[in-house]
Amino acid sequence: MSGDVEILYGDPEAPGEPFVMRIRELPGTIVPPHSHPVDEHITVLQGTWYFGLGTEFDRNALRELGQGSYAFAPKGSSMFGFSPNGAVVQVHGVGPFHIHWRGGLHTLDDADAKSVFRYAKGARATTPRGTGQIVQGYASGPIVQYELKSADGEHFMASESELRLL
Q1: Inter-residue contact 17 to 7 (CB < 8 Å)
Q2: Structural element, H or E, at residue 115
Q3: From CA 136, how far away is CA 133, in angstroms rounded?
Q4: What is the pLDDT of residue 3?
Q5: First-to-last C-alpha distance (Å) of the chain
């Protein structure tokens, strides 16, 4: 997640200190259920972001948030999101800001990646969104996604079920 987050103000990990961060969500991103130990104020700066509260990812519970929209997630609440075409979301609160992934978090960099992911870094694949090379994978609970880089350098996400190797 570190490549998609820009800290604009403060230190999100500092207790009692305000922070502002900007998150660039890639097209196709599903943010699995997670919680934070602090209140989260969310403003959509660009694109459309779909946001929901609950312990399981549920597309029917997602609320559409267009540019300029605001959402609030109380500390400890479970939330999830979806970005079909990419979005820039700004989050502010008072630290310490940590992410507690309800289904844990695995990446293709983990030692046990082969037990979680079907595909590896460097594989070329096609998806409904386009063709690209796998640069990373993220899994939390039943949600398994891959970050791909297209030939023109654009990054996007695809669920494991959407991928077809070339």
Answers
A1: no
A2: helix 113-116
A3: 9
A4: 55
A5: 27
- Tell me: pLDDT of 65 over 90: yes
> For the chain, which domains are there?
2-101 (2.60.120.10), 106-165 (2.30.30.30)
Distance CA 137, CA 27 (A): 15
149-166: per-residue pLDDT in tens?
Answer: 999 999 999 999 999 999
Letter string b/e over residues 69-98, b meaning 16 or more CB atoms within 10 A of that residue's CB: bebebeeeebbbbbbeebbbbbbbbbbbbe
Distance, CA of 95 to CA of 110 (rounded, Å):
28
% of the chain residues with pLDDT over 70: 98
pLDDT at 1 over 60: no
- Are 143 and 158 contacting, i.e. CB atoms less than 8 angstroms apart? no
